[in-house]
Amino acid sequence: MNNLIKELILTSFHNQLSEKAKENAKAVKKLEEAKHSSLPYLISMKQK
Question: Which domain of life is it from (predicted)?
Answer without folding.
Answer: Bacteria
